[in-house]
Amino acid sequence: MDMKEMKEQNSGNNKRKGQAQGRVRCFCFVTIVLLLLSGCSLWIHLTPEKTYSSEERRMLLERPKLTKKSVLRGKFQMKYETYLGEQFPKRAQLVTLRTKLLRLLGERDANGVYFGKDGYLLEQYRAQDFDWKQVKKNIRLTAAFLEQYPNAKAMFVPTKSSVMSSKLPMFAQAEADSRFFALAEKQMPKDRQILVSDVLKAHEQEYIYYRTDHHWTTLGAYYAYTAWAESMGFTPLPAQQFTVTPVSSTFFGTTYAKVRTGGRADTIHLYEQNKTPTYTFEYNNGETELDSFYDLSKLKGDDPYSVFFGGNQAIADISKEGAKGKKTLLMIKDSFGNCFAPFAASHYARTIVIDLRYVNLPVSKLLKIYPADDILILYNSAQFMKDKDISKLK
Q: What is the model's pTM?
């Protein structure tokens, strides 16, 4: 065998050896991945199912039901993939790690959240994130309700990303809000809409939205209250008539929960009139009775924002002792109404606050139970666009 043949043979042997080593490495990699996936899947199925994430402050997807129809349409596979992701071990820690890596790579957003200026985390509301058939349906239902009840008005609170656009990263936009308000203004009676965007924009540099939560602060709610009161012919209570008390300076809200990093801790303030009227409160037809708009015990829990009203209640019946006249306000709201209600209630003998997500009656029947002189529909724009319980507004 000459030298040339020997070189060719050695080359062939080395090539086969390299291919064999490559197959071994590939086999090892696939085996490790399969073991990890199997181990995680086994862990998920052996540990109790989590229905609520305290870190992310939201309900988790329930295990989807396996049916022939859902499998054929692909819905089961999609929901099951999401379910596994939400039940994944150490999910919160992995979300934090992923977000930190993205920030190191220079990304300006993660998991639907923009990393804004001055410690602000701002929700990314894109037009494609919404079902516009549902949005238009909700607008039509609300417009019809306003037409039916001449004593009703609607207030839609713009998102933080829309009002505090100066805090957004360069070229970021709150495009969904712009489209929604254009549709709402066009289809709803103009004299029944309380437009607070300009009022809030005028105070953009003040602390009107939480840095780490999607809600407005009590100060933001106060500015909107002044606009509402003027539209109703009331004289708004001046800010000097309130004692403002900070009750939590370590609040990290729902927006922070999506990324688990960035932002600066928020402070929750309570506004109480210097000469506080005496109120009586009855929640959910006598289920709970309180003597204040605020439940301070919630400050020690997972969601300090629940200090307002003790969280979302199906029905809150508030009566003010010694009130002049006998007027009643019916307020239909989402969670943005929780810190607004104390301001509005000061002008009525009785205030009924309803959250349609937790009641099973249409508003027409609720009005027979709770006749009202005035009606206020108060929703955050993003929540209103996605809310399927607006169908009860009839």
A: 0.79
